[in-house]
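Hey,
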Amino acid sequence: MEVVVDFKDAHLLTKVALVTISVADLILLIGVSTNYWYHESYRYLIHLGNPHFGLWRGGYYLSFWQATQAMECIGLILGVIALILVILYLFVDQFRGNKNIVLYSLVSAIAAGIFITIGIIIWGTHYPSYQLGWSFALACVGGVFLFLAGLLLIPEKKPQLI
């Protein structure tokens, strides 16, 4: 029989993971949806009418572009799933204390971080680092936060992992 965990009785790191996943999803959403993944350096700015672009504006038919879009979207979806599962675990009576929900959230958050990292690597190998924009940086931060949030959920699940 599982012990029902109330929000106040949940592990502190699980509460921190809830906040971390929320912030990561917001940061990642802003990073993925804005058009500053790439910017031209100043010397090229004079010759171009549009010195910056993002995942959704620019080279749509390039395979690396589509691969990056796919990885970032999968990561964002998994991040939202992780958030929903942690909310269910902490606040919904039917799921409170269900350690499988924590495991699914943990796996979703870590997988999101991995997918986002793959997308970042794909994109980053095609442009020099000095031309990567702030949207790219937000995606990087969001991916790291999601990965760390997954790790923060381990103590809540740990008794069953041993």
